[in-house]
TrEMBL record, chain A:
<protein>
    <submittedName>
        <fullName>Proteasome maturation protein</fullName>
    </submittedName>
</protein>
<dbReference type="Pfam" id="PF05348">
    <property type="entry name" value="UMP1"/>
</dbReference>
<keyword id="KW-0143">Chaperone</keyword>
<comment type="similarity">
    <text>Belongs to the POMP/UMP1 family.</text>
</comment>
<dbReference type="InterPro" id="IPR008012">
    <property type="entry name" value="Ump1"/>
</dbReference>
<dbReference type="GO" id="GO:0005634">
    <property type="term" value="C:nucleus"/>
</dbReference>
<dbReference type="GO" id="GO:0005737">
    <property type="term" value="C:cytoplasm"/>
</dbReference>
<dbReference type="GO" id="GO:0043248">
    <property type="term" value="P:proteasome assembly"/>
</dbReference>
Automatic annotation (TrEMBL), chain B:
<dbReference type="InterPro" id="IPR016050">
    <property type="entry name" value="Proteasome_bsu_CS"/>
</dbReference>
<keyword id="KW-0645">Protease</keyword>
<protein>
    <recommendedName>
        <fullName>Proteasome subunit beta</fullName>
    </recommendedName>
</protein>
<dbReference type="InterPro" id="IPR001353">
    <property type="entry name" value="Proteasome_sua/b"/>
</dbReference>
<comment type="function">
    <text>Component of the proteasome, a multicatalytic proteinase complex which is characterized by its ability to cleave peptides with Arg, Phe, Tyr, Leu, and Glu adjacent to the leaving group at neutral or slightly basic pH. The proteasome has an ATP-dependent proteolytic activity.</text>
</comment>
<dbReference type="Pfam" id="PF00227">
    <property type="entry name" value="Proteasome"/>
</dbReference>
<comment type="subunit">
    <text>Component of the proteasome complex.</text>
</comment>
<dbReference type="GO" id="GO:0051603">
    <property type="term" value="P:proteolysis involved in protein catabolic process"/>
</dbReference>
<keyword id="KW-0963">Cytoplasm</keyword>
Length: 138, 268
């Protein structure tokens, strides 16, 4: 399988209705569920927060393009893409150290570092399925 | 990937709140610091002041809470609004400012802290209920900012925030002068906070002051105990021997040892 076709990120478990024992919805592990919550935002800031990093990056790249020319964001995005591929197998915790250093996240602390630390999450993805997705076999 | 996890936290709380209110239970009221906080710039630095009462609805939750938070050795921040929000926001900004200062190898500036705070509060559109008075002395002199929950800031020589802000501002507007001495500035802030304490139900207890000058920070907690709890003047305890003893009988209980076990402690 050629390396360039490996997927950069694998979706984590949690998309779609969570089924526990006896085929019933597992409220303890995945919380209350309703179709409305999956379609409409359940908090005013949900959409804004979901796209916050993306929008910040877009804004920064476009400013950089206007100031320094097209080569600057192009080179940076190339480096990001390369750094994003340095990771362990998808179901294991990778540190993303190179990517964080490039993005400047190693010099700031925010709510993602304090709350809901993925390293302490109680659920893990299915190893086989995640690796198959990453290799593009799924 | 961190974004999806962050959203999960957000949504679960919002969904939980909706479900619980549907069942008829009330979400407990967030503990607010209905407060008086203020700051004033004087000749060589600035003075920050705060009261020490934290309320939970109509009840005083904490009679002596600390509202002047540390941001960096030369910058301190008073917080009004939801107590948890001010606490966590100032701690996060303090950490970020420390990392920034290590990266630039310079003392942090008040304008940096101000910008970090306003960008974060604007990002959350006022849902973080933190109204702050930020003050510090850096290489450009003393600076004082007031920061509102939605992210707007004002740079002024004297500011007040909180439910008692109008009472404190009345004192400031009457007696503020440019280039005061340190003692005058401390007295002015103490009087402004006292006005808030005695005229506003949300503020009370003691007055904390923080005097910041170039190279020196005096954290005076408490500076003035305006509301001391009263001391009981009478003692209702009976003296030994007040009740006369009529008869006395001693019954000896014979206990026999049934079982004896020895547990050795590992004291190595």
């Amino acid at each position: 399988m050629p390396l360039s076709q490996l997927k950069d990120s694998v979706p984590v478990t949690g998309m779609g209705p969570q089924v526990g024992a006896y085929g019933v919805q597992d409220t303890l592990r995945s919380g209350f569920s309703s179709v409305k919550n999956e379609l409409l935002p359940s908090h005013v800031l949900e959409l804004s927060e979901k796209n916050f990093q993306l929008n910040q990056d877009k804004m920064n790249f476009s400013t950089l393009r206007n100031i320094q020319g097209l080569h600057a964001p192009l080179k940076l995005q190339m480096e990001y893409r390369a750094a994003r591929q340095i990771q362990r197998l998808p179901f294991l915790q990778s540190s993303h150290l190179a990517l964080d250093t490039l993005k400047g996240n190693d010099e700031s602390i925010s709510f993602e570092d304090i709350l809901n630390d993925p390293a302490q999450s109680e659920m893990m993805g299915e190893p086989h399925i995640m690796v198959e997705y990453k290799l593009g076999m799924m | 990937m961190t974004q999806t996890f962050l959203n999960a936290v957000f949504l679960e709380n919002a969904v939980l709140e909706a479900e619980v209110t549907k069942l008829g239970c009330n979400i407990p009221a967030a503990r607010k610091t209905g407060t008086t906080i203020c700051g004033v710039v004087f000749k060589d630095g600035l003075v920050l002041g705060a009261d020490t009462r934290a309320t939970e609805g109509m009840i005083v939750a904490d009679k002596n809470c600390s509202k002047i938070h540390y941001i960096s050795p030369n910058i301190y921040c008073c917080g009004a609004g939801t107590a948890a929000d001010t606490e966590m926001t100032t701690q996060i900004i303090s950490s970020n400012l420390e990392l920034h200062s290590l990266s630039t190898s310079r003392m942090p500036r008040v304008a940096t802290a101000n910008r970090m705070l306003k960008q974060m509060l604007f990002r959350y559109q006022g849902h973080i209920g933190a109204a702050l008075v930020l003050g510090g002395v850096d290489c450009n002199g003393p600076h004082l900012y007031s920061i509102y929950p939605h992210g707007s800031t004002d740079k002024l020589p004297y500011v007040t925030m909180g439910s008692g802000s109008l009472a404190a501002m009345a004192v400031f507007e009457d007696r503020y002068k440019q280039d005061m001495e340190e003692e005058d500035a401390k007295r002015l802030v103490r009087d402004a906070i006292a006005a808030g304490i005695f005229n506003d139900l949300g503020s009370g207890s003691n007055i904390d002051l923080c005097v910041i000058t170039k190279g020196r920070v005096d954290y005076l907690r408490p500076h003035d105990m305006a509301n001391k709890k009263g001391v009981r003047t009478g003692n209702y305890k009976y003296k030994q021997g007040t009740t006369g003893v009529l008869t006395k009988s001693v019954i000896k209980l014979d206990l026999e040892v049934v079982e004896e076990t020895v547990q050795t402690m590992d004291t190595s």
